[in-house]
Amino acid sequence: MDGQQVLELNIKCFGWFLSPDQVKFIRGVDSRAPDYFALYAVEDETVQSQVGVVTLDTQSASGVEKVGYIWGVATRPSFARKGYAKKLMEKAHERLSAEGIRYSFLGTGKSLVAYHLYQKLGYKDLTLLKRGLKRCKAQEQGDISFNSKINNEIIVDLFSEYSKNLFGFIKRPKNFLEVRKAWSWMPYDLVGGFFEGETPIGYVVASTEGKVIKIRELCCPKIEDINKCITALESESRFEYMVLECVIGSYGISAFMESGFNLFDESWGVLMVKDLTQGNTIEEIRNSYGFEEMKFHMTSIDEY
Q: pLDDT tens digit string along 260-279?
C-alpha cells in the first residue's frame, strides 16, 4: 500500500496526519490493530477509499466478548457514492465473522452521509455520544488535592477497582493511555490524580485549551468521590469552563450531573453496533452490556 496516498486520503477527509511512521508507531503499541491494519480500495493505482478495523475484548453479561470496531471510513470526494466504502465495510465484516466475532461497533454522527450507509449495512443505534458543560466556580482547596503527575500503575489500579463489576469497554491493556495518544483521535494533554492525603481516589484524562478543560475520562472507584474531584479541579483557578465528553448510559453520569454539569439534551453523535450473526435484537445487546442496570462503561478515550 502506498503510504503517501494513505496519508493524503486521511488529511483530505479528517485532517489526520496518518503517515507511514505514525502507522508503524500505532502497530508497535496497540495489540488491538490487526496485521492488515485497514482495508483499501485502489483504482488506477490510486487509493480511493479506506476502512480501518481493530478487534478488542469487551465484558458482557455472558463473559468476555471480542468485538470489532470500525474506524477511519474515508473516500476521496471525487469517488464518493460509488460503493467503495460499502464494499470495504462488507469485507471488514467478513474478516470479523471469520474470527468468530459477533459484534461490530462504530462511532459516527447522524448528520453525516455515512450514517445512512451504516444503517443500510445493518448497524443500529446503541446509544448517544453527548457533551455536558459546567461553568467553574471559585473553590478553596479542600481535603482532596490534584496532582498533574501520576504513576500509570496507579491509574491502572484505580480503573481496575472502578470497573470490576461493570460491563462494556473495560478490558484495557496496561499501556492504554499510550495507545490512545498514538491514535490521537481524542487528544489529551492533561493526566492527573486526585489524592485524599496520600491515598489516590481517582484520576482524570483531559485536554485543555485556554481556560477550558475537556474531560475525556474522570474515574473514581467510589462514585461519591466524583464531586470532590471536580471541586479539586475547580480550585485550579485557570479553568473557567469544563466540558464533559460522555456516552449516554455509562455508569456514573448522574454523578457528573449532580456536580453541576448541564448535559445537552440533543446530540448528533451516536455509537452504533451491528450483530454480524443477526441473532440478537438491539435491546438484547443493550441488556447484555448492562444498560438496563446502568453498569455499562465507555468514555471518549475508548473510541476508535
A: 999 998 899 999 999 999 99
